[in-house]
Amino acid sequence: MNPRITPKATCSSSSGFTLVELLAVISIVAVLAVILFPVYQRVQQQAEASKCTANMRSIGAAFIAFTADNDGYLPAARLHPRADKTLGRQNQHGHWETEIAEYVGYNIRKAAGDDGEVTLMICPGGRTGMNANVANRTMDKDSGDTVSGALDYQTPMVLVSDPANTVLIGDADDYHHGVWKNMTPNEETEEYLSGDPTRHNGMANYLFVDGHCELLSLEEALQVIARGRGNL
User: Fold this and answer.
1) Is 110 helix (H, G, I), strand (E, B) or coil?
2) Which has the closest alpha carbon to 151: 64, 88, 202?
3) Which long-range contacts link 26-34 to residues 24+ away (Cβ below 8 Å)?
4) What pLDDT digit, counting tens, does each position of 121-150 carry?
5) pLDDT tens digits, 71-87
6) What are the residue boundaries of the structural domains of the chain, listed by start?
7) Which residue of 47, 78, 163, 221 sits 20 to 30 Å from the alpha carbon of 132, by its own alpha carbon?
8) Are 49 and 201 a contacting pair, CB within 8 Å?
């Protein structure tokens, strides 16, 4: 009896990617990454801008509470130990963020529990500064005239003639705030001397004395100032 002969199994063809197909897939993924990464950045920056706006509104509420408890005065931008005390009312504890700390619940520039290191900023993208010119007006105690007080003297709210159109704080790289034409950052630190007009997708947040916020480009902010709305 002849043994049964079975046919040999044939190898099936490979179903894997060829080198050309693999390179094509990699190229497509790379192109998609290039397209989507800027979109991701914009979305992230928009989220930061929204958080910044919410934080600014909370800070605005703290300013209002401070004013109510301090005879109608806004805090000064800073406390300077050598400032002339006869020119106007000064802060009691420190710069503006220290003055309003009790109304926020903590110092907005410090993480709870640390040893004083500046770690917690108002804006996720950096610091926030107080409008120098809001803190640059105080009333002469004898004549009642408005006099220049630099950054050192508290401002009576009655001197802010248009709270809805006067900037109180804004995105900045220092505790004080200002914007001007052709602002450029420091080449080494990449920080601005005062305001940071391009922090959020080429724009910046501004909180007005009445508590509302606006996201403005530098050009729009300068137009606000030119119309006398910003008082910067």
Assistant:
1) strand
2) 88
3) none
4) 678 778 899 987 775 444 455 555 545 555
5) 999 999 999 888 888 87
6) 21-226
7) 47
8) yes
